[in-house]
Write a structure and sequence with these properties.
6 helices; 123 residues; extended; mainly alpha
């Protein structure tokens, strides 16, 4: 039985030096715009329920008897603070790796938690 394939040499099978130095990059599947929007909306919505901002707007609305003006003011404030967060996050992502940002955020949240626990113990 004869095969019509050309012989393969060892040099054909070996990787070049430049191939060995290239990092293996796995393609990360792109998340859809709707998934990112939905995840962001749900996360922020749940985080904001019952927080001091919501309680402040509730009290301001009751005190001022102008709920739509309070809604517009608090909405503009939330949009502005969110814009600052997005711009700062975009800038940080160009300077630091995602792993570094994640670790830094974890350390900051841990420090804030420890300060709050310390405040409760002292008070």
């Amino acid at each position: 039985m004869k095969l019509d394939t050309p012989p393969v040499s060892v040099s054909d099978l070996s990787a070049t030096e430049t191939d060995l130095n290239q990092p293996i990059v796995k393609d990360k599947p792109q998340e859809s715009v709707f998934m990112v929007f939905g995840t962001t909306f749900i996360t922020i919505f749940l985080a904001e329920i019952g927080d001091k901002t919501q309680l402040s707007t509730l009290l301001m609305s009751a005190e001022s008897h102008a709920p739509w003006v309070v809604f517009a003011g608090s909405g503009a404030a939330l949009i502005t603070t969110s814009l600052l967060g997005v711009l700062l996050g975009g800038w940080i992502s160009t300077k630091l790796s995602p792993k570094t940002v994640e670790k830094s955020a974890g350390v900051m949240l841990l420090l804030i938690s420890l300060m709050l626990v310390w405040d409760v113990i002292q008070g």
